[in-house]
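HUMAN: Quick job: go over this next protein and say how the chain folds.
***
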Amino acid sequence: DLRRVGRCCEASGASSLNSSLESLHEALATAQRDWEQHRRLFHGLFGNFQGLVASNISLDLGKLQTMLSRKGKKQKGLEAPRRRDRKQAETWADEPVQGPVLGEAGSPVAFYAGFSEGTASLQTVKFNATYINIGSSYFPEHGYFRAPERGVYLFAVSVEFGPGPGTGQLVFGGHHQTPVSSTEEQRGGSTATTFTMAELQKGERVWFELTQGSIIKRNPPGTAFGGFLMFKT
């Protein structure tokens, strides 16, 4: 029994000794890494000490203190307007936004259609090839766009007129017209493009009508009509 107890004590002592040696080894490794870092830092700061001494350059601590004091005052002077600007920006951010907002939340409205058939009839042009009709507000069977919301809209029309002078107009609600014309008398015809903005009431219609000349037949179309809602009013 005494032998067994002795063996147990020896095993326990050996285990404790091994644990202590491992801890000591880790501590030495950590100390070595720290010393190496300090050595590199010291060398980086004072490695050129002999060169500095040989160059006979003196450091005026009084001038250094004066320079730092001026820099501190300048920094304080800049901080005041910055604080005022931040305060003003926070005030503006808290104020509610007034008036229309471009791209505000809601159902988007946009359309784009082409006319490939060609015509010489002085009437409303029914753009028969619809490429985009978000909101289903363009009616190709009638050739007009109907505003689904009150707001400001942007429209564009590009017309490929036939030979000779050609004119047309964008009509807004039957009471306002924007002319589209080409006076160049070219043998192969000419193209005229117009952009316009208008504030429409809900339900108002917009269309393009030919008033002189002809429109060339072409596929894919060389004549197109499009627009979109910029913002509600």
Q: What stands out?
A: DSSP finds three helices and ten strands in the chain. Residues 2-46 form the longest helix (45 residues). The CA atoms of residues 1 and 100 lie 97 Å apart. Residues 41-59 have pLDDT under 50 and may be disordered.
